[in-house]
Amino acid sequence: MSDQLKRGVYNYKDNTVTFGKYDGEPLDWTVLEVYDGHVLLFSKYVITYGQYHRYDDVRYKYKDSDVREWLNTVFVINAFTQDERDMIDYAEPEEGCEDEVFLLCKEEIMNEDLFADDDARMCGETYWTRTLTGYGDKAVTVDMYGFPSWTYKSNENVGIRPAIWVNLN
To answer: In the chain, where do the E strands start and end?
Structure first.
């Protein structure tokens, strides 16, 4: 897989790759999809905890969220070398967003082509998706058992589990 992602280590048995480091620890990713020389990686574990947004106000969508800003500034700068960042494709997870790093949405989390079952979505902790509930003051999460749930956007005790597209060419 493109020189094992040029520096990382690819494990064919459990379809994971090590790519980047955060807080001095290697980042393990699950390969969700390979498409036309690009690979969608999803963090195997929660990397940290934080709010979706500091306000529960319905006006704040994913594109305005604190978690999106953190992923595409603090996290991406600290987790990847410049060579690794050069391999990361920009994605448009939602209209008006052009991100290197993003959260998956509920539809992607529930997509059986990406996640075969609840166990595949599990990581033992609750984590954010980028999807808001119908009321907009809460965001959809995935609970420790792999089931969709929700909580207020200002909840600081929810995990962040990022996704990235990497160019293999």
So the answer is: 10-11, 16-22, 25-35, 38-43, 48-49, 88-89, 127-132, 138-142, 148-152, 159-160, 163-167
Q: How many CB atoms lie within 10 A of CB 7?
A: 13
Q: Structural domain of residue 11, as residue ranges?
A: 2-167
Find, among 163, 60, 69, the residue nearest to 111 by Cα: 163
CA–centroid distance for 1 within its chain: 20
Q: Report how far apart, in Å, the C-alpha atoms of 39 and of each of 48, 70, 115, 147 are.
A: 23, 23, 15, 25
Write out pLDDT tens, residues 53-76: 988 777 778 999 999 999 999 999
> Token pair 């990686």 is at which residue?
41
Give dist(CA 87, CA 16) in Å, integer: 17
Q: What is the pLDDT of residues 80-116, one digit of tens each?
A: 999 999 999 999 998 889 999 999 999 999 999 999 9
Which residue in this structure is represented by tokens 């001095």?
Answer: 24
